[in-house]
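Fold it.
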Amino acid sequence: MTTPMRIELAEFEQDDPGARGEAHGELWRSQIHELCAIRGELLLRHDGFTSASQIDELAARHLPVLAAEAPALALELAGIARGAGVTLAQLVILNHYTDLRELPAALRDEAVPIDRLRSDDPGGCTAVYLPGAARGPVLGQTWDTHGSAWPYVRLLRIRPRSGDEEVLCFTLTGCLGLMGVAASGLAITTNNLFTTDGRIGLLSSAVVRTLLVEPSAATARVRLARMPLGGGHNFMLADGRDFFGIECSARLQVLMQSGAGAAHLHTDHCFDPVLRQRERVPASSTSFRRMELATTLYVQQRPRDAAGLWALLASHEGHPRSLCSHGGEASGDAAASRTCGVMVMNLVGGEVLAGAGCAQANPPRQLGFTRWRGLEENIR
C-alpha cells in the first residue's frame, strides 16, 4: 500500500525579494535542477525546437518583460537562480513551460500550431467556484500537467516581516506560483487554454503573483487587462464579494463569467465564440469530458464547504479520465498528463486545503492565515 504524501510547505519571511528567492533556491536546489532538466527535455521533444540553446535563447527573451512588468518578481526569480545554481533561462522554462509550448520554434512572435503539441501531454485543470457554501464562497482547482511534475509540487507561504502581506501559493520548486490566495481575501485559479496567438510575454507564474498583490478581485481584473500575457489561460478571480472568470489568449481577454452569487466551472477550452477562433484543442484533451463530469457531479453532490469541493475535485468518476485525472493509466505512460495536486480556498476566514498528487490517495493539508484581512464568518 502506498503511504499518503503530505504536501510540503515552505515559509519565507524575507523583506528583500532577492534574498527570498535565494532562500527558495537553496532550500530546493536539487529538485530545481531536476525539474529544469525535465522540462527542458520535454520541450526538446516538442516539434519545432531543435536544440537546448535555441530554447534558452527564446526563454531569455521573456526576462525584459518580467523586469518591466514585475521588477520585484524579477529580483526574486534571479535570487532563485543564484540559490539553486541554475540559469535564468532555465527558470523561465520551469515557470513558463506551458506557454513556451505555444510559441514557435523559430525566434519569432508567431503562434505555433497547437497540433504540434505532444498528444500524450495536453495538460489541463478543472476549476470550480461555490457561491453558497456554508462558511462562505469557496474557490478550488485541480492542477493537471505532465506527470513528471508531481514530485515537485509544493506550497509557499510568503510573509515578509514588515507590512501585513501574506500569500499562500500552490507551486513547484523553482516556480513563483501557480494559484493561491492572499491575506486580503483575493484568490486566483488559472486553467490553460490552447490558444494560437502565443507571444513573448509575462511569465504565467508572475501573472499569478502580481495579481495576488491587488486588494480585491475587481482591481485584479483591471490589472490583468493591462498585462502582456504570453499564452492562453482562464483566470478565476474571487474575494468573497466579487467573482470574475476571464478567458484570455495572449492578445485578447473576454469576461465570460461573473457574479459572486452563482456557481462557476471551467476546464481547458474556450466558451467565448471569438476566442474559439484562436483555439485548437488537442484531440487527446479531456477538457470537454471533464466539464461534463464537473457539471454533473456539482448537481449531484451540491458541495457546501471546502471539504465538499475537495471531494468533488477528487472524484474518480470516469477513471482514469476523471476530474482527479489518471490519464497515464489509460495510455500506459506513467508520465502522461495527470492530476499533480489540488488547492481549495475558503474566501471567508481563509482556510486552505491543499495536496500533491492524487486527491484521494493524499488527504489535504489544512492551513490558515496569521494576517487574514478578508471576510470573516461572522460578517456574513
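Confidence is low (pLDDT under 50) at residues 114-119.
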